[in-house]
Amino acid sequence: MAGDLATAGVLMSRRTLLAGVAGLTAASGFAATPGQAAPDSSAVSIPGNGVYPPGFLWGAATAGHQVEGNNVNSDLWLLENVKSTIFVERSGDAVDHYHRYAQDIALLAALGFNSYRFSIEWSRIEPEPGLFSLAELDHYRRVLACCHEHGIAPVVTFIHVAAPRWFAAAGGWQNSSAPALFARYCERATKHLGDLIAVGCTINEPNIGKLLAQMPGVLDASKIKNMLADAAAACGSGSFVNYIFGDQDRISAGLLRAHAAAAAAIKSAGFDFPVGVTLAMSDDQAVGTDSMRDRWRETLYGDWLRAASHDDFVGVQVYTRSRIGREGPLPNEKGVPVTQVGLEFWPEALGETIRYAYAQTSKPIYVTENGVATEDDSARIQYIDRALAGLERCLKSGIPVKSYIHWSFIDNFEWMLGYRPRLGLVAVDRATQLRTPKPSAHHLGRIAMSSGSRRT
User: Fold this and answer.
1) Which runs of consecutive H residues, i.e. helices, occur in 86-172?
2) I need a surface site. Which of 81, 251, 259, 331 has the fewest CB within 10 A?
3) Which of 445, 343, 351 has its CA nearest to residue 60?
4) Which runs of consecutive H residues, i.e. helices, occur in 35-96?
């Protein structure tokens, strides 16, 4: 069962999946049923209160496949374009960040941010096994240099969902050679780019497959099987595996080894920046006296939090809460507003998840993703304020939180759901590629500038 369920994962926004199946049928915009109250905005962040330490990173995030466009050598590009695809639309040009990165980074800086989390694309850098593209490495070096020109600290993720199609066709993370292949790529990339990297994240959300495997009936497994078969046939391979779909026990074991190997390889390049992993997490709340919450956490996070305890930090990525009963996650609580993708509007999840991750690892916490899918930007502002109120309480209690990086910088391609969900601080007209900052972008930027924190 785990294999079939896990195959669904990459085809959906993980922001949907944390709330379960309900997200697929949620209404567009900040959805609330008649009679629901608006989110409470009484708990808001107070800028300039001296809570944020020197060097605190205020930023926003993207992932290469979601914003760059034309990532044609990746496994996801192939999945989007096979006849049996279940993606509602193709990524295509995305928001053309590959060519427009300079104006985007300048905009990020002008809004008041001092960091930018983005991924370098393995499928561009190593389009065929052992063939490394100097042109693509130089492209990412220009992106990094542009960050520094604008006073932006680059937070680099070495893989964010998309992998080279040759890697997927060779068994992906189920291949016993996967850790060595990934480490080789990370070492080569770091040698070329490492002097410009401020923070390094090895793998984005490597625990997401296990999360999905706990949620039966998310998508039609037979359709996914057909899509993967078409992708394998297109590659002349007997299988096609990403870290989301396949045998989750084998994939998780491969990812754990790959993270350890990659972290060591990145460190071996001789540059002095912190290295860690980012995890898909939620505020897991026990419901009832016989809740399986603790077992749920051990299944989803246990191995990874233990691994992170040997890293320089743990990256926390959280959007909502999960109410865990005797048999697993429960439906959204009645009366709580939901977002555009069906998640409960629950900004307080951030502070509680930070506390849990720190208690388990005793490592500095980087908030590498936090945000909300909504057409109503006033709801995004409320979400930010309430989330930051929880983060500030963590700082006041002595937890070493090093960043708040919002997901996402710009409205982008949300995997299987296409371009409908709106998570960005910046809107984009995909016909003209015109960028328009939303009020939330200015709001969070003002908080960043007035927080008293400065990049060191």
Assistant:
1) 97-111, 122-125, 134-149, 165-169
2) 331
3) 445
4) 64-67, 75-81
**CB of 82 closer than 8 Å to CB of 234:** yes
DSSP 22: G
Q: In 26-136, where do the E strands start and end?
A: 57-61, 115-119
User: How far is the CA of 218 from the CAs of 98, 156, 211, 213, 224, in angstroms?
Assistant: 32, 31, 11, 9, 11
The H or E element spanning position 368 is strand 365-369
Q: Which residues contact 126 (CB under 8 A, 6 or more apart)?
A: 132, 133, 164, 185, 188
Q: From first to last of the 456 residues of the chain, give the pLDDT tens digit.
A: 333 323 333 333 444 333 332 332 233 333 332 233 333 444 444 445 679 999 999 999 999 999 999 999 999 999 999 999 989 999 999 999 999 999 999 999 999 999 999 999 999 999 999 999 999 999 999 999 999 999 999 999 999 999 999 999 999 999 999 999 999 999 999 999 999 999 999 999 999 988 877 665 556 778 888 999 999 999 999 999 988 877 888 999 999 999 999 999 999 999 999 999 999 999 999 999 999 999 999 999 999 999 999 999 999 999 999 999 999 999 999 999 999 988 999 999 999 999 999 999 999 999 999 999 999 999 999 999 999 999 999 999 999 999 999 999 999 999 989 999 999 999 999 999 999 999 999 999 999 999 976 543
Task: Report the candidate in 163, 219, 260, 256 with the shortest Cα–Cα distance to residue 4.
Answer: 219
Burial 132-171 (b: 16+ CB within 10 A, else e): eeeebbebbbebbebbeebebbbbbbbbbbbbbbbbbbbb
Pairing of strands 115-119, 313-324: unpaired
For residue 91, the one-letter residue type is S
Paired tokens of 362: 């005793």
Can you tell me the distance from the alpha carbon of 21 to that of 10, in angstroms, rounded to the nearest whole number? 15
Structural domains in the chain plus CATH codes:
2-31+42-450 (3.20.20.80)
Residue 306: CB atoms within 10 Å: 12
Query: Which residue, chain included where needed, has tokens 């294999």?
Result: 3
Number of Cα atoms under 13 Å in the Cβ half of residue 136: 19
Residue located via tokens 């603790």: 294
* DSSP 8-state assignment for residue 414: -
